[in-house]
Amino acid sequence: MIKAVIFDMFETLITLFQSPLYFGSQMAKDAGIPEDKFQELWRPTENARTIGDITLEGALEMILKENHCYSEELLNSIVAKRVAAKEDCFHHLHPEIMPMFDGLKKKGVLIGLISNCFSEEADAIRKSVLSPYFDAMYLSYEQGVQKPDIIIFKRCIEELSVNAEECIYIGDGGSFELETAKELGMHAMQAVWYLQEGTTQPAKRKPDFLHIERPLDLLTYL
To answer: 46 phi and psi, to 5 degrees?
Structure first.
């Protein structure tokens, strides 16, 4: 019997690719720094930003100072644009996301979240319209550990007080999350409703996992 469904966030419940992008290239342009020089400092911070060792503000301050263009005004401007871009994603949900959540709640199914995220994303998630639905929320920035580490999966199912085999895990397939969920004994399924072939999205359809084409289709597996 399925007692809980645990979701990934990005490209599963929300997508970054239906809102104006504000990634490294856009931040570099606003900072007036050549993209290659910006990225050589920005990209190495990804792991530290994901597990809470450094904030967005801290990483950007370092980059601006290294390039001799730091000002509080410039830093705050870039941070504000980055935060706005992340928050905007929650205004472009697949139309079946909220009905799916409502359906899970009506069936008495617990809802969990395991997401790799940065400081600005953790804030956006906790302030979002989705936040009240989660019975357990495990964000890498807050946990100090990221997918696919099995530890963050175990922490979530322990808080939900369920066994792994009583859980469905739904993700887009990035970060080897589906493989870890399956290894743990969960029913791992790939959410493909946001996937767009031929785009810059990192995940692709994985033939070894069941594909969920639309959010409401999930309810048929309970």
So the answer is: -60, -50
3-state secondary structure of 163: coil
- State residue 198's pLDDT score: 56
If you average pLDDT over residues 74-102, what whole number do you get?
97
Cα separation of the two ends of the chain: 8
**Quick one: tokens of 153?**
């999966």
Q: How many residues does the chain have?
A: 222
Average pLDDT over residues 61-90: 97
Q: Which residues contact 73 (CB under 8 A, 6 or more apart)?
A: none
Q: What is the mean pLDDT of residues 35-61?
A: 98
Given a cut of 70, is residue 197 above it in pLDDT? Answer: no
Phi, psi of 160 (to 5 degrees): -75, -10
The torsion defined by the Cα of 84, 53, 154 and 201, in degrees rounded to 10, comes to: 40
Q: Is 162 exposed, middle or buried (0-12, 13-18, 19+ CB in 10 A)?
A: buried
Phi, psi of 68 (to 5 degrees): 55, 40
**The pLDDT of residue 204:** 81
Contact 3, 46 (CB under 8 A): no
Instruction: Check if the beta carbon of residue 141 is closer than 8 Å to that of residue 121.
Output: yes
Per-residue tokens: 139? 């964000």
How does strand 167-171 pair with strand 210-212?
Answer: unpaired
Q: What is the mean pLDDT of the chain?
A: 95
Rounded Cα distance between 88 and 97, Å, is 16
Q: pTM of the full predicted structure?
A: 0.94
User: Where do the DSSP E strands lie in 175-222?
Assistant: 187-191, 210-212
